[in-house]
Design goal:
The protein is 11% helix and 44% strand. With 101 residues, it is mainly beta. It has one domain: Roll (SH3 type barrels). The strands form two sheets. Strands 1, 4, 5, 6, 7 and 8 form a six-stranded antiparallel beta sheet that branches. Strands 2-3 form a two-stranded antiparallel ribbon. The longest helix is centred in the first third of the chain and has 11 residues. It is globular and about 40 Å long.
Length: 101
């Protein structure tokens, strides 16, 4: 029997993510592509889970996985609304090299 039986999914996700603060996480958002500093890239981010709030998570430091700069470290923390995250993987090594084209 699950200890989360009577808790809504949002509360279970919130508690799970809060228990993982300090862990590295790979996050993919719903967007097909994003644009920052004139660079278009797939919405793939990797970083340390720094903060978890009921509606969002914050990563810092965070790496944006771009084709021409696969280890670009964004200079400030980034927040992601939970409803815009399509996939995530906890305890992901942000130094992992994988194709993103």
């Amino acid at each position: 029997m699950s200890m989360y039986k009577n808790e809504p999914l949002g509360e279970r996700l919130f508690e799970f993510l809060r228990s993982k603060i300090g862990s590295d996480i790979l996050v993919i958002t719903d967007s097909d592509q994003l644009n920052i500093f004139g660079q278009t890239f797939r919405p793939i981010f990797c970083g340390r889970l720094n903060q978890v709030e009921p509606g969002h998570i914050e990563l810092y430091p965070v790496i944006i996985k771009m084709v021409n700069a696969p280890f670009f470290e964004f200079p400030t923390p980034l927040c992601f609304p939970l409803e815009k995250i399509s996939q995530f993987t906890i305890d992901f090594d942000c130094g992992t090299v994988f194709p993103i084209t």
